[in-house]
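User: I'll paste a sequence; please echo it back and then give the predicted structure.

Assistant: Echoing your sequence first, then the prediction.
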Amino acid sequence: MAATLPAWLSKIRAKQQPSSVVGSVLTLELRKFTELRDSVDAMFKRTKADRFLVLFAFNGKDYMKFASAIYEQHKNTASAHLSVGAVSKYVHIDIDEEYRKMLKRAETEGLVTYSVSKMQPSLLKDIYEAEGVQHMKIAHLKRVEDFGGEERDLLIYCTVATHESAAFTNAESTYIRAFMSTIRNEVFEAQKGP
């Protein structure tokens, strides 16, 4: 099972974040990396999920313009190989209106489930179809207000996906909801931040 953090993360930190935000929000890779990796591995063992990403959306208050994958982890399956490399492929990508709606819905509801075949045409649907992803869940993790000292927010969210044709069962969905809550509350909210 692979877990990856992007090399470009330090460049974004230097350009867009004051040191207080760097020290609080993005210390994940130093203090919580092992905990996150182990939690994702446990979730992979208990569900059909085979892809986990943490992403940022930024450059807006309500209207997020860009997204970047900052962490990825995959179950070692034949079909998951198409999704490997997200942190290098999905860097500062322009997001469309459907993607923004999904982020807003996840922020409002906490966790949202989608079957890729039933999604509205969008960048995210195109990405998932190219990777062979069949079902996904998107969860809001944290909003950092006035990111970089400007009137722009940083939205941190994650996705859990499967390449299998069968949707997540009720038991798997319950486990994933609890997993997402743990990630939100213990990995992201536990950090002191603005």
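The mean pLDDT is 79. The CA atoms of residues 51 and 74 lie 5 Å apart.
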